[in-house]
Amino acid sequence: MDDFLDFEHFCKKYDKEEACIDALFFARWPEGYCCPRCAHRRCYVIRSRRLPLYECSQCRAQTSLISGTIFEGTRTSLIHWFQAIFLHAAPEGTSAIRLASIIGSTYKTAWLICHKIRHAMSSSQSEELLSGLVRVNWGVYGRPHNPTIYRHPQEQPLLAGASIDKNDQITHLKIMQVAEEHLIYDRITPAGGREFVSRHVNSSTADISVVIQKFSRQRYFPIIQRCYQASQWINHIFNGIGPKHLQAYLDQFCFGFNMTKRDENIFGVLFHHCASTTTLKYPTLINRKNNSAMLKNDYFELLRKAG
C-alpha cells in the first residue's frame, strides 16, 4: 500500500469497487491465489456475485474474496470499508457518528464496522509480546473520583506495560483492563500483575519491573503519561467509554502509538490485518462480559455501610 497525503486523495484512488477488489485480493494472496483447502495455485473466477468467488481448478472448493477477513458477511461496499480503515489509521481515529455521516450508513452499521476494525487492531496487538527491558505500571481510565479505597463505577484500573530502549524511550506499549477477580476495591492484586506478565511479556525477558500500587516510589511516569493520553483521546473523540468495550479502544490507542514509533505505514499494516483477521460477529460483540452493573451496586452498598 502507498502512503497517502489525505483522505480526499485516498478516496479518489479507491473510488471504484474493482480497485478495492484488486487491493484486497493482493492483500490476501500477495503471491497469487492459493486454495485454502488444497493449496493449489489455479482457480476459476465466478463473477455473477457482487464480489468475486474463486473456484479451485483442482479440488473445486469455492472461496469468497472476503471469507476469513473482517469483511466476511458484510453488505457494505468495499469502497466504504476502505474509507473506514483509512480513517481509523489516522492519528485521531474516528467515531461511529462521524463515520456514519461520511459513508452514509446507519449509526449501528458504522458502529459495527468500527469495532470490526478495532478487532483487527486487537489481534495485531496480541501477536507481539513485550521484551528486552520491560516496565509494567498501575494506571487508570477515568479521573479518580474518591479519596477512599472504594472504586467509583467510572474508574477502570489498568495495567500498562512497555518495552524500553537504551535511551529510556518506549518502543512498544500495551494497556490492559484489569479483570475484576484481580481487584480488591481499587487495588490490583499481585496475581493481576503476574497474569499480565504471563500473557503479555516474552518468557525469555529477564529485566522486568512490575508496579501495581497507585503511589509507589517505583512508578514509571512515562507509562502513567501514556495511560493519561489514552484516556484523554478516548474522552475527546468518543465522549467516554464504559468498561464493556474499553479494551478495544485501548488496543486502538496502542496500535497507533506502536505503529507511529516504528514509522510504519499505518494504513498498510492495518489493511493487512483486516484482510487476515476473521470477522467479529455482532452477537459476540454485544455479549462481551460487563461487570459495570455489579460494580455500581457494590460501590453504593459499600458507601452506605461506611456511613
TrEMBL record:
InterPro entries: Transposase_Zn_ribbon. Residues 17-62 form the Transposase zinc-ribbon domain. This is Transposase. It comes from Cohnella luojiensis. The lineage of its organism: Bacteria, Bacillati, Bacillota, Bacilli, Bacillales.
